[in-house]
Amino acid sequence: MTQHIDKLAWIFVEQRRVLMTRSYGKDQYYLPGGKREQGESDQQALIREIKEELNVDLIPETLSLVEVFQAQAHGKAEGVMVVMRCYQGDYQGQLQASAEIEELRWLTTTDKTICSQAACLVLDYLAENGLID
């Protein structure tokens, strides 16, 4: 039986690059976001996770679903899949690494070797849609 990890992620593109994060002790970059807590909607979970990880406030009325991606979960047993519901939207505040996040980085398709499989799918999607290089 395939196991799924339910994740929400924020896609933020600026100057044809997408914002990615790397957690302490990890060697791969991911989209910022995380898992929902019991009873949370997509929007509530994403707003909470982004506040925790990047210390900014997403603006709820600007959030919209971009796409849902599925890939092998990085660092998990073969067959454990992450299902990532990706949203875009505006924020208020100053982006900074917080909580478990060690580093923020702006990436393009040339950075796929340092990204999780799910992040690579997002990079390809953004490039195919002319949003990043």
From TrEMBL:
Residues 2-128 form the Nudix hydrolase domain. The keyword Zinc does not apply. Pfam families: NUDIX. The keyword Hydrolase applies. This is NUDIX domain-containing protein. Coiled coil: none annotated. InterPro entries: NUDIX_hydrolase-like_dom_sf, NUDIX_hydrolase_CS, NUDIX_hydrolase_dom. Keywords: Hydrolase. Signal peptide: none annotated. Its cofactor is Mg(2+).
